Amino acid sequence: MIHMKKLRGPAWLAAAAAVAGLAGCGKTVVLNPAGDIAAQQGDLVVTATLLMLIVIVPVILLTLLFAWKYRQGNADAKYDPDWHHSTVLELVIWTVPLMIIIALGALTWIATHKLDPYRPLDRIDAQRALAADARPLEVEVVAMDWKWLFFYPEQGIATVNELAAPVDRPIRFKLTATSTMNAFYVPDLAGMIYAMPGMQTELNAVINKPGVFQGLASHYSGKGFSGMTFKFHGLSDAEFAQWIDKAKAEGKPLDKAAYLQLARPSERDPVQRFSSVEPDLYHRVLNRCVEDGQPCMHETMAKDARRGAAAAPAEAPAHAQHGAGGHHQ
């Protein structure tokens, strides 16, 4: 991968300008993140930018050169109105962009598979491979109106608008939403991933540095969208255990009644912690059947599939007769 400190000359200046444009509020998170997946994505941005600059920089320089050389006051410039073709020039014009497109295509194809959010991690960072017995931290994410709910099934707790994970431990997110499609995004951790009602997406990532990082909703979802932010804490193993204990000590139980109250639209909610979670609550949220008497989506789809399978044999003779009739004609 290409790092900023290795850049030289005009390419360095152009890349620096790109960094300034991506910096936002003075913080170059995209190109200097705290997580390995985000770092690989940042390297991909730099590499793709440099490949495109192979064309962009010469074009800009030649445009300025031609404007200066063939200015009206330069009587020494060669005037050749009958010129119409150069084989060498045509080869350069077509070959260089074609090779850049091939390189970008290969780079994108490789990165698309390597950085697939559903793909389990195989390394902690560029220098350390993931241990064979490493267990990812499971986090179930629910995008609500307009807040984030996080379940920790292994630890048996839940939080609102606060997320934490141990440094250098893989994290496997499972994401859904209550009513409106949204996008989960922690720039220091990984790229954004959609959360949709009645569906589940996944994201595998790791945080490599301790600290407090910004998380947000990156997909517009209504009037409370701008306040739909949270803090992501990168902690040591001991600090993460203390954080879990604090939630269990200070929080309250999260049952269906508490969830339905929480699911009501609200804006800029403070951090909340829940000491326990009713069994299968996340799966009920995912299948849209938290309320009593409401059928779960996976059960309804299973019944529809069984009915379809039962009806198929009865329809087979009709299809067979139609096919035989067509053949006879």
From TrEMBL:
Cytochrome oxidase subunit II transmembrane region profile domain location: 22-119
InterPro entries on file: CcO_II, CcO_II-like_C, COX_ARM, Cupredoxin, CuRO_UO_II, Cyt_c_oxidase_su2_TM_dom, Cyt_c_oxidase_su2_TM_sf, Cyt_o_ubiquinol_oxidase_su2
Domain Cytochrome oxidase subunit II copper A binding: 134-246
Subcellular location: Cell membrane; Periplasm
Principal subcellular localisation of the protein: membrane
Domain of life: Bacteria
Record's compositionally biased regions (Low complexity): 308-322
One Gene Ontology molecular-function label: oxidoreductase activity, acting on diphenols and related substances as donors, oxygen as acceptor
UniProt topology in membrane: Multi-pass membrane protein
UniProt xrefs under SUPFAM superfamilies: Cupredoxins, Cytochrome c oxidase subunit II-like, transmembrane region
Oxidoreductase listed as a keyword: yes
Record-level GO cellular component terms: periplasmic space; plasma membrane
A family per Pfam: COX_ARM
Keyword annotations from UniProtKB, A to Z: Cell membrane, Electron transport, Lipoprotein, Membrane, Oxidoreductase, Palmitate, Respiratory chain, Signal, Transmembrane, Transmembrane helix, Transport
UniProt keyword annotation of Cell membrane present: yes
CDD domains given in the database record: CuRO_UO_II
Biological processes, Gene Ontology terms: ATP synthesis coupled electron transport
Signal sequence range: none
PANTHER family noted in UniProt: CYTOCHROME BO(3) UBIQUINOL OXIDASE SUBUNIT 2, CYTOCHROME C OXIDASE, SUBUNIT II
Family of the protein in this entry: Belongs to the cytochrome c oxidase subunit 2 family.
Listed name of the protein: Ubiquinol oxidase subunit 2
Species of the source: Alicycliphilus denitrificans (strain DSM 14773 / CIP 107495 / K601)
